[in-house]
Design goal:
350 residues, Rossmann fold, 16 helices, globular, four-stranded parallel β-sheet, alpha/beta, binds iron/sulfur cluster, 47% helix
Length: 350
């Protein structure tokens, strides 16, 4: 992806924010009444909630209270496909709803909003990406889960950050040359871990790329005992100073496992809800971001994840609105690389 494209993506993202609708703040009695309504509607519609770690705490709370799943995108995909309920309400961003539909075509997939997207998805449009792949027909195409159904359908493998390194090593053992898309920072991290050169697409996450090594190191001077936990969508300079680099689930596990009592966390602060549960006696501090000039307006919180709220969960269940559809031919093509990842993950016990 060229610099011009990168600029174009940023303009598109800014335009998107201009029209973005965040759920309004609720008082406690409104929260209670929305939660009660959701509990009733989930039962009535044979539905369950599947939510990402980056959604707001109140969304994660109702997900837990109703026996749903809060997880990373790999586990969200797996959970939805094995649940008996015929309707899944996916609280997250668009590619997560599409992934649920790809793996569970017989189910109705609803989302609180269809407006919630991802800068990685926006930055990897299918036509340009397909041309790029066509120019390198001898390469295996590996794409991150944060992509559209069409990009997944063009890929040989889909990966999440929790198994990207293992998949790339596995392909290298078979002598494959690899195209990696769309996250350049995760791609660079995988290259460093494996020593395997990949042809790279240059997308990025607007939340993680705002973390800055200097700000984190300044914070560690104040809290010298704190361990630094970093998601690999962050820039290389931030990854270099990390005590642990990992997917969301791996970051939560590290917080519970490590002896430190304080952690500086460079990923979306929505994750603090589960980290606090996993390690209730520990303290979590959000890593500083680029500040007021940064693209990310919400400081360590994804503006698209923030569009999920109790109000729009209620309305999607009441009206069956925001249903996710994926063209059947595309779905079948996209299912293959996704299923490959899930089968591979099983062999690793991930
Ligand atoms: S946090 Fe970044 S990668 Fe995750 S959905 Fe938001 S923009 Fe996409």
């Amino acid at each position: 992806m060229s610099a011009a494209n990168s600029l174009k993506d940023r303009i598109m993202i800014q335009e998107h924010f201009a029209h973005e609708h965040l759920p309004s703040a609720l008082n406690q009695s409104e929260i209670d009444s929305h939660k009660a309504r959701i509990k009733f509607l989930l039962k009535e519609h044979d539905a369950c909630l599947v939510s990402h770690y980056y959604t707001d705490a109140v969304v994660q709370e109702i997900t837990e209270e109703t026996g749903g799943c809060i997880s990373d995108s790999l586990e969200m995909a797996r959970f939805g496909s094995v649940r008996p309920e015929q309707t899944l309400v996916v609280a997250g961003v668009k590619f997560m709803g599409e992934t649920a539909k790809i793996l569970s075509p017989e189910k109705r997939i609803l989302m609180p909003t269809l407006e919630a997207t991802c800068s990685l998805d926006i930055g990897c449009p299918i036509d340009e990406f397909s041309d790029f792949c066509d120019q390198h027909p001898d390469h295996v195409v590996v794409v991150y889960a944060n992509t559209s159904a069409a990009v997944k359908a063009r890929a040989d493998w889909v990966v999440t950050s929790s198994i990207a390194v293992q998949v790339v090593r596995h392909l290298e053992e078979q002598g494959k040359k690899i195209i990696w898309a769309p996250d350049q920072h995760l791609g660079n991290y995988v290259q460093k871990q494996t020593g395997i050169e990949m042809l790279m697409w240059h997308g990025s996450c607007i939340v993680h790329e705002e973390f800055q090594a200097k700000g984190i190191l300044d914070l560690r001077e104040i809290f010298p005992e704190a361990a630094i936990l970093v998601h690999p969508e962050s820039p290389a300079s931030v990854i270099e100073i990390a005590d642990v680099v990992g997917s969301t689930t791996q970051i939560i596990d590290a917080a519970a496992r490590m002896p430190n009592k304080k952690f500086i966390v460079a990923t979306d602060r929505g994750i603090f809800y589960k980290m606090q549960q996993a390690a209730p006696d520990k303290e979590f501090i959000a890593a500083p971001t680029g500040g007021s000039g940064a693209t990310c307006r919400s400081c360590a919180h994804c503006p698209w994840m923030a569009m999920n709220g109790l109000q729009n969960i209620v309305s999607s269940l009441e009206n069956y609105s925001n249903e996710v559809f994926v063209d059947e031919q595309l779905r079948v093509q996209a299912q293959m690389p996704l299923q490959r990842m899930l089968d591979f993950a099983k062999t690793l016990n991930v």
